[in-house]
Amino acid sequence: MMLKLEAERISSSGRLVMWLRAEDKNGKKREIGGLCVRGSVVGGGGVRVINGRKVNGVVVGENKAVAGYLEREGAEEEALNAFKLGRFVEERFVYRQTFVIRSYEIGPDKTSTMETLMNLLQETALNHVMSSGLASDGFGATHEMSLRKLIWVVTRVNIQVDKYSSWGDVVEIDTWVAASGKNGMRRDWIIRDYSTKKTLTRATSNWVIMHRETRRLSKIPEQVRGEVMPFYLDRCVIFEADDDRTIDKLNDETAENIRSGLAPRWNDMDVNQHVNNVKYIGWILESVPMKVLEEYHLTSMTLEYRRECRQSHLLESLTSMKTSIAEDTDSDNSALRSTHLLRLQENKSEIVRARAQWCIKEQA
């Protein structure tokens, strides 16, 4: 009996699975099943055991296709980490991680949401720091930062979406960091479809350092700069012109919709004791008209974080919408642009300014 590797795919748990079929001497094929990459080569006799046991009573014997695949991936542990924790590529300047879109990460349209994408970006960034060996006890803080009670805080995020993934899709995320001015850091991401390698999303962000106790911004200490500089890659995924960076401020007169009484919950807080930056997206959308949410997709969003938000605060969400009709198109294909503001309900202090672009959904 001869075993043949027919295809490969990603399982629902995110592991790589190789499907084997057996072919007897008469050419009749029989499917054996899916084998996880957690295989091993035993001794010099060419016998392979998957997960330490036989498969359907058959010991998997010499198979050049399987052997070649394991060799290309760098053996068991590296292959496993590529799907569990990610791995470094491009001479360790780029960190790559793979995710399966779960059922609880999709919205009413049966596709992933902007919040899902932002959470995946954040997870990849934190795993990048952890895998680099720089992570200490802070939320993405390096060893030297922890010694000085410093943390990273995001000041700006720009995310552009070409296509949202569906439940069960596998995506591959690349991330890297670079300098941003004298005392900031930029982090970029690219999300691709794992199978086709087509780019689905691009995102860029800016970060500064804050003292964990005084909550005041700080210059980057030279010791911290020395930790992160070896990972810097001067590559921009989104170019932002200076005149594109300004986001208009809304007020009671210019906003078309205002939603008050938005209260952060305990589960909205992160380990640095302020609201996680992804949570603001949901509050921003609270003041977007329901008709827009039902008929349009978010294609891009820029968020400018202006101050922290704590659990004791009550927020107001303000939104202004306007139509933006592209040239050489009819009005049925018109896009929307929106401006947003999250502010404290008590004293009207700004928390987040944002703007977004929307594209009409395709009819089913």
UniProtKB/TrEMBL annotation:
<dbReference type="Pfam" id="PF01643">
    <property type="entry name" value="Acyl-ACP_TE"/>
</dbReference>
<dbReference type="InterPro" id="IPR045023">
    <property type="entry name" value="FATA/B"/>
</dbReference>
<keyword id="KW-0378">Hydrolase</keyword>
<keyword id="KW-0443">Lipid metabolism</keyword>
<dbReference type="GO" id="GO:0000036">
    <property type="term" value="F:acyl carrier activity"/>
</dbReference>
<dbReference type="InterPro" id="IPR002864">
    <property type="entry name" value="Acyl-ACP_thioesterase_NHD"/>
</dbReference>
<keyword id="KW-0809">Transit peptide</keyword>
<dbReference type="GO" id="GO:0016297">
    <property type="term" value="F:fatty acyl-[ACP] hydrolase activity"/>
</dbReference>
<dbReference type="InterPro" id="IPR029069">
    <property type="entry name" value="HotDog_dom_sf"/>
</dbReference>
<dbReference type="Pfam" id="PF20791">
    <property type="entry name" value="Acyl-ACP_TE_C"/>
</dbReference>
<dbReference type="GO" id="GO:0009507">
    <property type="term" value="C:chloroplast"/>
</dbReference>
<dbReference type="InterPro" id="IPR049427">
    <property type="entry name" value="Acyl-ACP_TE_C"/>
</dbReference>
<keyword id="KW-0934">Plastid</keyword>
<feature type="domain" description="Acyl-ACP thioesterase N-terminal hotdog">
    <location>
        <begin position="94"/>
        <end position="225"/>
    </location>
</feature>
<keyword id="KW-0444">Lipid biosynthesis</keyword>
<comment type="function">
    <text>Plays an essential role in chain termination during de novo fatty acid synthesis.</text>
</comment>
<feature type="domain" description="Acyl-ACP thioesterase-like C-terminal">
    <location>
        <begin position="254"/>
        <end position="358"/>
    </location>
</feature>
<comment type="similarity">
    <text>Belongs to the acyl-ACP thioesterase family.</text>
</comment>
<protein>
    <recommendedName>
        <fullName>Acyl-[acyl-carrier-protein] hydrolase</fullName>
        <ecNumber>3.1.2.-</ecNumber>
    </recommendedName>
</protein>
<keyword id="KW-0275">Fatty acid biosynthesis</keyword>
<keyword id="KW-0276">Fatty acid metabolism</keyword>
<keyword id="KW-0150">Chloroplast</keyword>
